[in-house]
Amino acid sequence: MNLLAIVGSPRKGKATDALVDKAVEGVKARHPDCHVKKLNLIDYDIQFCRNCLVCRESKTKEPMAPCSIRDDMDALYEDVLKSDSLIFGTPVHMGYATALMMAFLERLCWTFSTPEKSYLTIHGCPRPRSEKKRRAIIIVTSGIIRPLYRRFCDQATPLIRGTIKDALNARTVGDMYAGDIEHRGVEYYFEKAYKLGQKLV
User: Fold this and answer.
1) What is the pTM (predicted TM-score) of this model?
2) Residues near 164 by beta carbon (within 8 Å), at least 6 away in sequence
3) How many CA atoms lie within 13 A of 51 on its CB side?
4) Which member of 74, 116, 142, 174 has the greatest number of CB atoms within 10 A?
């Protein structure tokens, strides 16, 4: 099993990073031979999508369409292709995933998906180019907003869930919202993240 953990926080070693690590520990506890690669997106040059439509209009039969941008995503695409399971971790900024995570997701979308042709669904919606099935979990953190108010400030989880379903054929098997970390401390959520990781196996 190839596990790819993707951290969209601009601050390495902080809450999101720590909870993703705990989730990875949960995976490894049930699958010791699992190969894990962790990406801190802040370490990579990921340019924003330019809407050139090269990927969307590609007729390739490969699981990935070409992208016109040459940056670190060239290597990260290969990591995504190899993955069987995924962990996405991001803080919520203004209720949404960070700009780092958004850039990554935008670059994934049409590279790994193609417009739906069936008129039984909404014409033009993305569907995966590959039949490969993946599993995923999502971890969202907030420094100040308590879990009680999650539905008002967490647009990141549904966005990630929908994008990876449409592009990567990934089923989200669990998610968590770690809120009010500035007062509760990140350790408050360690066990929950660990158990969430175990759901991937």
Assistant:
1) 0.95
2) 86, 88, 108, 134, 136, 170, 172
3) 0
4) 142
